[in-house]
Amino acid sequence: MRKVDLLYLAMLFLVLLLHYIVPFTLLRECSGFELYTYWLLLAIAWIIVTGVYMEKRVR
Length: 59
Prior knowledge:
Transmembrane segments: 7-24, 36-54
Keywords: Membrane, Transmembrane, Transmembrane helix
Shape: elongated
Strand content: under 5%
């Protein structure tokens, strides 16, 4: 595996952890807009990470 692939896998596991750890610990009391904003920002961040990975992978 290339270094870019390993970095992408590390980011994948980090995002998966954030999907579960943050809502069940830090955002336990939140509902509605705050939780929606968290999921939206995390999804946008993952789209950006995937885009950067695809750029590096194609080269």
